[in-house]
């Protein structure tokens, strides 16, 4: 890549900007793009998979949830491994795993093997995603960081809409297995860019610093809520559900105790002394719990209730991503004057309003009644992401960036996975065992009717309204972060 001559830094001056920072952004955003696209590109394919494998939503939801959950539990260990081995090496390994598992998923003979390969794919996604915002924060000066974070948010939106639209086209022409060839292509491009562009940086930890005890406890504590949701969806509140909840709480308490005593913990607990970091991370989790319900439910609603083809169901999400991208790029300059708390809170309120609007969708919704709430969701995402990401990481010392980004990414992806699991479980529970199998297995263009239609719409309404309520909780947490001082000009 093009090298710049290092400028001589005079006393009192800010250090010179990294001349390769925009190339670095391009490299890490390739990984960001593929990981987020991979999360939801298969949503449109669930009916096609149901027809091929002969299983329903209670099983097929794990094709998505297993990937998102594995990304989530991988992020914290990946952040620490990046401190030990270097971010470049971990990103390259992660991209390589995504390449290999894309081929395996495309060839999966059964739904069980597909879910297993998706778990492996999630490991690769976690290794990549744990380092995206850390690399951005490391190479961009503070005055440019909002702009870089706006690009990051735009890539997230582009990844989701590309996955849905391109996925719909490919399913209709070549079947659902072709989706993983898209992941393969983008992963290969990301691998090549990472090898060419990313620079090895000095390790901040020695190779004995990996906290494997904390890693295992973190996996147990993070996984417990998903098992509780699965139990609740199958039979309501039972002793097993309470036991899982208590087990997860115990694992979390042990994790905190272990981390406090270790000289080189997996998670630096002193990070949470910063109210901006703590509230920003938790608000990000609530944002994704709320917003992700749209990406899961709306493509199914468009196919099963409105009778649209996979590609037209994907196109339906385009307004959300366009508005999110435009708002993200606009707000990067506005944030210097307004502050993260105001913008992020306004974003969360837009998310709740949009989800409440979607909860009223009926059996014959007009496009206008869908596009309006989607534009609110896009505006909310654009207002929330850049200022929240930037303000959350701005106060983190450079030596803790990988771990801090690892936890922030864990919070974001935990929200995605929990939001998807909640929406899928509510939908499956509302349809019932027989309805959940039959709803997805119909022919392309077939519309639900009778009790299945009423059950689908009722479950969707409940899921969207629950998500809207959780968005309001996220708004309150965003307010609690405190005011951010405007950036100096």
What do you see in this structure?
There is one protein chain. The chain is an all-alpha fold and 489 residues long. 78% of the residues lie in helices and 0% in strands. The chain has 17 helices and no strands. It has helices spanning 21-40, 46-53, 57-85, 87-107, 111-129, 132-139, 142-174, 179-197, 212-235, 239-261, 275-304, 310-315, 318-338, 340-358, 367-394, 401-441, 450-479. Helix 1 runs antiparallel to helix 8 (179-197) and helix 7 packs antiparallel against helix 13. It is globular. The two termini are 30 Å apart. The model is unreliable at 1-15 and 485-489 (pLDDT under 50).
What amount of the residues lies in strands? under 5%
Tell me the helix content: over 70%
Mean pLDDT value? 82
Radius of gyration (CA) equals: 22 Å
- Strand count, sense and closure of the main sheet? none
Name the poorly predicted regions.
Answer: 1-15, 485-489
The ordered string of helix (H) and strand (E) elements is HHHHHHHHHHHHHHHHH
Strand tally is 0
* Structural category: mainly alpha
Cα end-to-end separation: 30 Å
The number of helical runs is 17
Shape: globular
List the helices and strands and how they pair.
Elements: H1 21-40, H2 46-53, H3 57-85, H4 87-107, H5 111-129, H6 132-139, H7 142-174, H8 179-197, H9 212-235, H10 239-261, H11 275-304, H12 310-315, H13 318-338, H14 340-358, H15 367-394, H16 401-441, H17 450-479
Helix pairs in contact: 1-5, 1-6, 1-7, 1-8, 2-16, 3-4, 3-5, 3-9, 3-16, 4-5, 4-8, 6-16, 7-13, 7-15, 9-10, 9-16, 11-14, 11-15, 11-16, 11-17, 13-15, 14-15, 14-17, 16-17
């Amino acid at each position: 890549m093009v090298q710049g001559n290092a400028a001589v830094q005079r006393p009192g001056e800010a250090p010179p900007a990294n001349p390769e920072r925009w190339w670095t952004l391009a490299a890490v955003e390739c990984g960001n793009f593929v990981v987020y696209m991979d999360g939801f590109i298969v949503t449109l394919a669930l009916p096609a998979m149901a027809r091929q494998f002969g299983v329903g939503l209670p099983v097929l939801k794990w094709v998505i949830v297993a990937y998102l959950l594995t990304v989530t539990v991988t992020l914290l260990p990946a952040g620490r491994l990046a401190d030990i081995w270097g971010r470049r090496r971990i990103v390259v390994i992660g991209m390589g795993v995504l390449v290999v598992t894309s081929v395996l998923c495309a060839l999966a003979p059964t739904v069980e093997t597909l879910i297993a390969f998706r778990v492996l794919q999630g490991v690769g996604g976690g290794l990549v995603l744990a380092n995206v915002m850390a690399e951005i924060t490391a190479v961009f000066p503070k005055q440019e960081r909002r702009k870089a974070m706006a690009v990051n948010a735009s890539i997230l939106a582009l990844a989701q809409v590309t996955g849905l639209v391109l996925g719909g086209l490919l399913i209709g022409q070549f079947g659902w297995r072709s989706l993983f060839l898209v992941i393969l292509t983008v992963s290969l491009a990301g691998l090549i860019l990472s090898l060419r562009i990313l620079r090895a940086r000095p390790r901040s930890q020695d190779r004995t610093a990996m906290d494997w005890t904390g890693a295992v406890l973190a996996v147990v504590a993070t996984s417990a809520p998903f098992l509780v949701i699965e139990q609740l969806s199958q039979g309501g509140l039972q002793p097993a559900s309470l036991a899982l909840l208590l087990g997860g709480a115990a694992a979390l308490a042990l994790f905190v105790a272990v981390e406090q005593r270790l000289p080189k913990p997996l998670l630096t607990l002193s990070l949470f002394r910063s109210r901006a970091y703590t509230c920003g991370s938790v608000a990000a989790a609530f944002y994704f719990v709320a917003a992700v319900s749209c990406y899961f439910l709306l493509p199914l609603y468009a196919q099963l209730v409105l009778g649209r083809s996979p590609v037209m169901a994907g196109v339906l999400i385009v307004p959300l991503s366009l508005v999110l991208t435009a708002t993200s790029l606009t707000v990067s300059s506005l944030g210097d004057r307004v502050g993260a708390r105001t913008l992020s809170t306004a974003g969360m309120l837009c998310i709740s309003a949009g989800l409440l609007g979607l909860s009223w969708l009926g059996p014959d919704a007009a496009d206008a009644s869908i596009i309006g709430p989607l534009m609110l969701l896009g505006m909310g995402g654009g207002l929330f992401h850049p200022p929240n990401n930037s303000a959350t990481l701005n106060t983190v010392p450079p030596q803790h960036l990988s771990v801090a980004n690892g936890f922030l990414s864990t919070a974001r992806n935990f929200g995605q996975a929990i939001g998807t699991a909640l929406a899928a479980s509510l939908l499956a529970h509302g349809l019932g065992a027989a309805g959940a199998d039959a709803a997805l297995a119909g022919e392309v263009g077939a519309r639900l009717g009778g009790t299945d239609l009423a059950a689908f719409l009722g479950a969707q309404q409940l899921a969207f309204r629950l998500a809207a309520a959780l968005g309001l909780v996220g708004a309150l947490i965003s307010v609690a972060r405190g005011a951010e001082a405007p950036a100096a000009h």
